[in-house]
Hints:
- The chain is of the alpha/beta class.
- The chain has eight helices and seven strands, in the order H-H-E-H-E-H-E-E-H-E-E-H-E-H-H.
- The protein has a single domain, classed as Maf protein (Alpha-Beta Complex), CATH 3.90.950.10.
- It starts with a helix and ends with a helix.
Amino acid sequence: MTTLHKNIAIEHILQDKFILASQSPRRLELLEQIGIPVTVCPSCVDESTVLTRNPKSHVEELAQLKAADIAKKYPDAWIIAADTIVVVDRQILGKPASRDDAISMLSKLSNKKHQVYTAFCICHKKRLISITRTVKTDVFFKELSEAEIHWYADTSEPFDKAGGYGIQGIGSFLVRKINGSYSNVVGLPVCEVFETLMELNHAGY
């Protein structure tokens, strides 16, 4: 337990078991950075079954499905699930399926503002608790040359990331500026996650 956690009295809820319903190393790292001890158990939800095109509803439905999937296996644990998408010109961009797909996504994002939506769901099946929240960040890309797009696609970094880029990695050179939460673009809005855990802690859960 960190000094910060002791000072703000969140130690009660952190005594319980937490499971991250994601195989994302970035989400795991973000949670560990703020002192949340989690076990990783990725969800097996088929994301293609969610057809909702409203960005907020889309990510919230997926986060809830992922949380429910793992909660069935671990009803006595707190489950943290999340989903992230990129939206440009009202089009939802998930993870690129191929190099050509990544190139297409990066071309669409070049010299434009887009939105990154991440929804997270924190639930405890046995206690009948489920909280879902969504955070949106505006991201502005520089104008990319064809050479830059192809070079970045060849790094292999785009392929497990929504929108085909990673702001915390090589893809940092793509981003001119952001308005909003940086960690939200990485894959989990840690400020809002922490605030939600504080609320649960103060409620006595």
